[in-house]
Amino acid sequence: MKKTFLFFACLCVLPFSMVLSCDPVEPDPNDGEDPVALAKPEGLRGESTDNSIVFMWSAVENAKCYSYIFEDGDEVYVNEPTVTMENLQSETTYTFKVKAVSGDLEKWLDSQWAEVTVTTGEEPVRPFAIDITGVTFHSVEMKISPLDAEMTYFTNPWKLADFESYASTEEFAKARVDGFKEAAELSNLTMEQYLNAIGLSVGEEIYIYLNLESDTDYVVYVFGLDYQGNITSEVVYEPFRTEPEPQVQPSSMTFELSVTDITDISAKMTMKPSVDDEYYYAFFVNKENYDYLGDEYIIQTCIDDLNEYISSSDWAETVAEQCFMGEDTFSYAELDANTEYVGFTFGVGQQGLYAAASTDLFVSDVFMTKSPSGSDGPIRIEVINFEIDDVQIKFIPSPEVESYRCELLPLSDFGDVGDAEIIAKDMENLWNDYADYYVMLLLYEEYTYTRVNPLEPDTEYIAFAYGLSDSEFVATTDLCKVVLRTPSEN
Q1: CATH class for domain 379-485?
Q2: For the whole model, what pTM was predicted?
Q3: Cys-Cys link to 293, which of 172, 184, 297, 343 (CB 3.0-4.6 A)?
């Protein structure tokens, strides 16, 4: 498709000397409904050279022909929605107006005049400005700014090769509208109902289109379209090319792994990568399962889990939340007692929209969790992590505790009081906030408390738990507590 001008090519241009006559018909005196005026021609525009102008407009439904006046000349009738004026003065402004003419005055009246002024030798003013603001390997972001803020329009990206397979932009727009009509019929909708469903745009809008093919030439196109399916402007388009799809790059990153703070249910692993600017994944696995499953299976299972998160987010956000970068420590508190484990890690990179492994699997020395620990009280409190923005505290009730309440609060909430007063004040607050619904907050099994909102730095907190009946509002055990202080921000 030639790209000299960004508007519809004319199907038929009648020379000035070959205009057709279209005499008006007198209205039938028979009684009936009042005739309705035809729609005013939309999308009237002119393409100029130094000494000629081609005027074009969208065809008007039910029009027999069109009547135009050029400058202060006579009224002339034509059958097609295009007129060419030649032998004009250069750099001169001309006025052209046109109306749709009825062929059945019992039903239709002539339309109102549409008018445009065009200067010879001047570049045509496009009805839309397209600003492509961002392109990735799978998406494009653009801003559409219509010249007429009231015009409804349709826009989309389209493969350049398919776009150029049409003889003209006008034929392309017609094919798109024909597709809408076919879809409307299949959905048992009128054209107006269908276009309302897909939503035509109006005014300046910013769009982001996803799921494009990588390393491929596209165009963003836009044309005026009303809710009856009439094309009301030329097609404006801008080309762009998507970027190549990112391929995961093998990394030379290596790791030093050390496991510490081993209990019967938890352990910490410190990861020291050889580089500080690459993501990696870390976890623990039962040694027996590791020997059976092998490195490749473990890596793929973890990558599949990561990519499930990515499907509802994006790569950068998910990997930043789920993976590590630089030296870090990972804590886990769901291990089995008296069991051999290894910690493992591997590098993570980007493969298209998703994550992929960038290194082999690295594993720690084998370690064994301890025997089940007893507890000084009815509810054991295991502090796994206690940082300003990373809190993990596990509460493990003994068998005699049927239901319990646990919480982490600033120690200053209670002041300098004893354990019984802490229980009493917490129960009072619980009842004031929830009344009989307090049972919804009770726990019956092991529970790992995690906190999303960051804690205050350099502040004492109390992690506490106590048995609380779910049948009557009474405490059933003494208070179990741990007092902790967050690190300072420095």
Answers
A1: mainly beta
A2: 0.54
A3: 297
